[in-house]
Write a structure and sequence with these properties.
Layout: H1 4-29, H2 39-42, H3 54-66, H4 69-77, H5 82-109, H6 116-123, H7 126-157, H8 162-180, H9 187-207, H10 214-228, H11 237-262, H12 283-290, H13 298-304, H14 318-343, H15 345-352, H16 361-373, H17 380-416, H18 428-442, H19 449-475, H20 480-508, H21 511-540
Helix pairs in contact: 1-5, 1-14, 3-11, 3-14, 3-17, 4-12, 4-14, 4-16, 5-13, 5-14, 5-19, 5-20, 6-7, 7-10, 7-17, 7-18, 7-19, 7-21, 8-9, 8-11, 9-11, 9-17, 11-16, 11-17, 12-20, 13-19, 14-15, 14-16, 16-17, 17-18, 19-20, 19-21, 20-21
Length: 543
């Protein structure tokens, strides 16, 4: 089979789903109102609440949700063959991930742009909010810890990309000032110029690489997130995400063209399905858990009820930003899967996937991408640096956003439960989340955190579908489009979490993972029970 068919089928289905299903959800289920006042206008403060054009919000939203998740997950999951991952990426994106993302964003818009854990008390009650805050907080610190490891691994292994990656920060600050102070400069042209400068610095990096050890980068990244998360959203996060949104289309375009340029040589080297690879966990539920962001992600709900609703200019923008953003991530996940099952070739696939844990994901992404870029005449060293710049740029934006969200979550919970005023400000809540991240990094679990992150991520995704379903039920609208995905997501993710606690972490004596995993499982179970009790109470009450 030719890998080109993967892209053709996936993009065609994504287009049809946006053309018809997203339209249906937007107009018939959520009834998006272009005249509604969004939280960005209602609470405009120039810091978190900043009304922005659709393209800017889309870039921020996509770069925040994508990160390295839709790249790493499909590469790791390729051990089960190409078919399970492809099915989950395409169908999961269309009927679960994108559906959940638009639901989370619109529900937040209708609740003054509040975070999902905060507005849950209006839907299910304060006890559910307490439990949900715990799930969200654990997921966020796991995201930060995992992505610090991912970024440090990539740029310590491929130092040619360092200059390009870090050049993006001053470029983003300049573009942020252009947009915020309304300078007479074309924003799109400025962002394109910034991407061109970034790519020019790939040449600089190849000539003068900047080698730093893994732990050196870990320390640098910890210092960086502490500063970046305290800056106004318009100064760094939003403009850099806009740059990365443009970079996404350039990267996906180049890689897709490269795959088509391979023509008949783009043959799939992996088997369609491997039910029981050596050492691997069960194919179900772990395909869906391993591909933690490429098809559905609870972290998206935090973004969609965190920074994104505070920037949305009009309600109908939720369709391209949320649903469209998830489809773009699905496309990226398909490309990542192809790097493993096509780009490596038969010998490479046999080498990296002979047993569980042998897949060196930075090398697979770089080597597979190098294969796709070769027909375009791009030398191997530049192709490797380019692939590294793409993944690290997205991972850094997720790192920024997740760190910022830990601050928002702590501050929101403090306001909700009337904790001391100092916990409702911007500094101490940030330091609390940062301290937990440092503790997780110090455990040196590194990629052993990925299955915990994946399960927690999908659990939160299921709970986000549940929250949207409850809101639609209270509005008297059809919620079957959310109930069915919720049941699939919650059964899959909680089965995976229970399996790892009992069969993996306890036997290995990994008690930090046992405690966090058990706490997330029990909190999620509590939210589901409280939602059921709310439904039963309303169903028995007067009409």
């Amino acid at each position: 089979m030719n890998g080109i068919l993967f892209i053709v089928v996936a993009v065609a289905l994504f287009y049809l789903s946006y053309r018809f299903y997203a339209k249906f959800l937007s107009e018939k289920i959520w009834k998006l109102d272009p005249k509604a006042v969004t939280p960005a206008h209602q609470f405009n403060d120039g810091f978190e609440h900043v009304p922005s054009r659709t393209s800017v919000v889309w870039g921020h939203h996509f770069a925040s949700i994508a990160g390295a998740g839709p790249i790493l997950g499909p590469i790791i999951a390729a051990i089960w063959g190409w078919l399970p991952g492809l099915i989950w990426i395409v169908l999961g994106t269309v009927f679960m991930g994108a559906v959940k993302d638009i639901g989370a964003l619109v529900t937040s818009l209708r609740h003054q742009g509040r975070g999902i854990a905060d507005y849950l008390k209006d839907l299910i009650g304060p006890r559910a909010t307490q439990l949900f805050y715990a799930v969200v907080f654990f997921l966020l610190v796991l995201v930060v810890a995992v992505f610090i490891h991912v970024i440090a691994t990539f740029i310590s292994k491929f130092p040619h990309a360092v200059w390009s990656v870090w050049t993006e920060i001053p470029l983003a600050i300049v573009i942020g000032c252009i947009a915020y102070y309304k300078w007479r400069v074309n924003l799109i042209a400025s962002a394109l110029l910034a991407v061109a400068i970034m790519y020019a610095f790939i040449w600089v990096g190849v000539k003068w690489p900047l080698p730093v050890t893994y732990w050196g980068w870990v320390i640098i990244l910890l210092a960086y997130i502490l500063i970046a998360a305290r800056l106004p959203v318009w100064l760094l996060v939003q403009p850099r995400d806009y740059i990365n949104g443009i970079q996404l289309f350039i990267a996906l375009g180049i890689l897709t063209i490269g795959i088509f340029a391979l023509g008949g040589a783009a043959q799939v080297a992996a088997p369609a399905i491997r039910v029981a690879p050596p050492g691997a966990p069960p194919i179900w539920p772990f395909v869906m858990i391993t591909i933690a962001c490429g098809a559905m992600s609870g972290f998206h709900s935090i973004v969609g009820s965190g920074t994104t609703p505070k920037q949305l200019d009009k309600e109908p923008d939720a369709k391209p930003v949320a649903y469209g953003g998830m489809l773009a991530e699905g496309w990226l996940a398909v490309i990542a899967l192809l790097t493993a099952v096509v780009g490596l070739g038969a010998a490479g696939y046999a080498k990296f996937y002979d047993k569980w844990g042998a897949a060196v994901w930075p090398t697979i992404w770089a080597e597979g991408g190098k294969t796709f870029l070769a027909p375009l005449g791009i030398p191997a060293v530049y192709a490797t640096a380019f692939m590294t710049v793409v993944v690290v740029s997205f991972a850094l934006t997720t790192l920024d956003s997740a760190t910022r969200f830990t601050r928002i979550v702590v501050a929101e919970s403090a306001r909700t439960f009337n904790w001391p005023k100092i916990l409702q400000e911007r500094t101490l809540p940030l330091l609390i989340g940062f301290a937990v991240v440092v503790g997780l990094v110090a455990t040196k679990y590194q990629m052993e955190l990925w299955p915990l992150f994946g399960s927690a991520n999908q659990i939160l995704g299921g709970l986000s579908l549940l929250a949207a379903a409850v809101f639609l039920w209270k509005l008297g609208r059809g919620n079957l489009y959310y109930i069915i995905p919720f049941i699939i997501a919650i059964l899959t993710s909680m089965t995976a979490m229970a399996y790892m606690v009992v069969a993996t972490w306890i036997p290995k004596g990994q008690w930090v993972l046992v405690v966090i995993g058990s706490a997330i499982f029990l909190c999620a179970l509590g939210v589901v029970i409280l939602a059921y009790q709310t439904w039963r109470a309303k169903a028995k009450g007067p009409a």
